[in-house]
Every structure is written in structure tokens, then in C-alpha cells.
Description:
Elements: H1 45-57, E1 61-65, E2 68-69, H2 77-82, E3 87-88, H3 90-94, E4 100-105, H4 120-134, E5 140-142, H5 146-155, E6 158-164, H6 176-182, E7 185-189, H7 212-224, E8 227-229, H8 235-244, E9 250-254, H9 268-276, E10 280-283, H10 300-314, E11 319-321, H11 330-336, H12 338-341, H13 343-347, H14 367-377, H15 382-400
Parallel strand pairs: 1-4, 4-6, 5-6, 6-7, 7-8, 9-10, 10-11
Antiparallel strand pairs: 2-3
Helix pairs in contact: 1-14, 8-9
Amino acid sequence: MLEPAKQYAGYRAYDYLEPGVDYRAFELAQEVGRVPAYAGLDLSTSETERTARLLEQETVVSLHDHLQVFPQDMTDLRSYIRQGRESTGYEGLSRSGLTAVFDNGMDGTCCISSDAGWKYQDVLYDLGVRMADLAHQDFVIKGETLKDIRHAQETGRIAHVFSLEAATMIENEVDRLDVLYGFGVRMMGIAYSEANTLGSGLKERGDGGLTYFGERAVQRMNKLGIAIDISHSGDRTCLDVIKTSAKPVFITHAGARGLWPTNRMKTDETIVECARRGGVIGIEAAPHTTLSPKHPKHSLESVMDHFQYCVDLVGLEHVTFGPDTLFGDHVGLHDAFSSNLSISQAHGHVDYEQVEYVDGVENPAEEFFNIIGWLVKHGWSDDEIRAVVGGNTLRVLEEVWI
């Protein structure tokens, strides 16, 4: 983990407001040091220096994360979310080394007006409030174009790209995609685990594929310049989206079902077709997802097993990282919202050893130091590391974004 970026002036979320007067304050989780530092790399001095240099100098892009800071006491979680004022982890980000991050709104748990989540008005509220907070500081900038990412790299800042994990909230209104684009959304999933008006999610018993409305939505996303994510879509829907889209699509946060047999992982066919059309898969690290037979206790090592599998399957140029971490107790979030997030259906009936956190990939502040450190330790070249921690994503965005 790096020292705080020089450009970070210490801003904390909603510093422009008065806690207890303008909003209810909650005791939030530590952004740095919540869990012990990862001890599994054992880098030499030269390897540590090379890791830090790459993280500081290269364009490092997280294809999928959640930058919210969650309550220290997770029994406060629903009250915290219902207030509609989730905090961005600026301090943690200042130590991350990231150039750009696709921050995915917790729209499935955006329970401001409804415990079911995915409501259009709630998503707009969440986006607007968090953008108001971003506007009151100048370390994290709103990322809407490649120019914004380049500006962040040149000035030592971080480009924050708003993303949504599914398009469920547009219901049957395709023009809502234009509204969300206007709010700054530049990446969107098709369906989460549950089916919606566009297509099927990965938990469903049957997958009818992309609907006619879903085809219209994909075409509109292409025209707008919204990157498409199929991480949580069902197998047939994934293939239909890849075929329908005029632009490459992303699997922003997943792993290989050939290595760990759950619906949350992608089939070889889906990964290959995504790559064949020019797309990229970001390797996932949320708790109890990218496990492997070699490393059944979820950690950086099991995450990197999925990385190596996908590189062997489709080539280095089609693989990157979408760790899917957050600031706080991620396992506690899954437990609290297991029905909203369809955790049990996504994992199926595969047994696994539960962990309290994913050692080495626990939060956005530490993840890429450890990922790059692993790549350095295992002999990957600077050019190869440059590609998989940002270059591959930028190449696709050159084609997808307007």
C-alpha cells in the first residue's frame, strides 16, 4: 500500500455539511488497516520498489469496485443506506495508486424507498448525492471520457467512473438510459442475478436470452457510449449480448467456471466469445467467488489462479482485474443482503470454506499493490503488467466510449 497521494488534502465524505444537523452520522469502518496487511507475497526490496514504481507510474484501472465506506456496526447498515448518503472512501483511495476506477452503485441494495432495491428514483438519488460530494473536493474527479482518465494520470488524481451492475431500474423505458448517461453513468450491466425486462440473470432456472427490449437497450447503449457488462447475466443472455452489441463488451468482475463450478463464474464459451469480439474479462475477488481447487480458501492466490486460467484460455490482451471490493465488512454486507444479491443461488450447491475477508484483496486501498506485487513476484514483464492493470481496458474503451 502506498502513502497518501500528494494531491489528497484530507477531504472526508460530506465535509461540506454538518453531521447531526444536515445528516445522521454513523461510525464508519476504517478505510485503511481494518484487517492485517497481506503477508503472502514476501517481496524483496527490489521487487517492492518495482511494484511501487509500476503502481505510481502506470495507468491503473479497476474495472469494478465499490468505493463506499460501510458502517463499522453492520446492524446499522439498512438505516445507513436508507438515508441515501453513502460515503466515498477518499482516504483509502488516496493510498490505492489507482488512476481510474469503475465505481458500481449498490443499486441492488439501494433501499432508500424500498427494501427490494433497483428503483429508478433511488438510483438517481444515490448518483446525485454522491456527485454533489465529489464536486466539493478535487482529488477524485468525475470520469466520463478517456480524456478524464488521461488528465487524472497526468495530475496524480483518480478518475471516478459511475457504473451500475444491472439495467433493471430502466424497466421498459429505453430513454432512461439517456438520463443515466447524462448523470455520468458510463458502464452498465444487463441483468443482475434476477431476470428483468432485458434478459436473464445468472440465478434463474431457465435463461430465455436477451429480449427484444434488451436488444433495443443494447443498441441504445452502443449509440450513447455506455460500456456493457455481462458479469451477472445468465449464460445464454451473455452470448446474445455479445452477438447483438456492435461494440466489445466487458465481463467486469467474474472468474472461470472451468476452475470453480458456480453460476457466478463464466463458462469457457462466454469468456472466449467475449474475447473473440474484442472484449475483456476482469477477475473478481469479492468474498467466496473466485476460489480454486488449488486454493479453496479465498485469497489473492485463488484470485490469481483465475487470472492465469483466463490468460491461458484467451490471451493476456483480454484479461484485467475488477476486484469488486469495498471499505468495510464485505462478508457482512452479503449476509445482510443475501436475498437482494441472490448469494445462495449464485453459488449453487458448491461447498467452500468461509472466510472473514479475502486476504490480499480486501479493499480498494490495498488490492492493486498486492496484484501487481504478485505479478512482479511471478516474473511478468513491465509491458505485460501494464496491459493487464489498465492497458487492455483502455483499448476497449477507445472503441466503446464516444
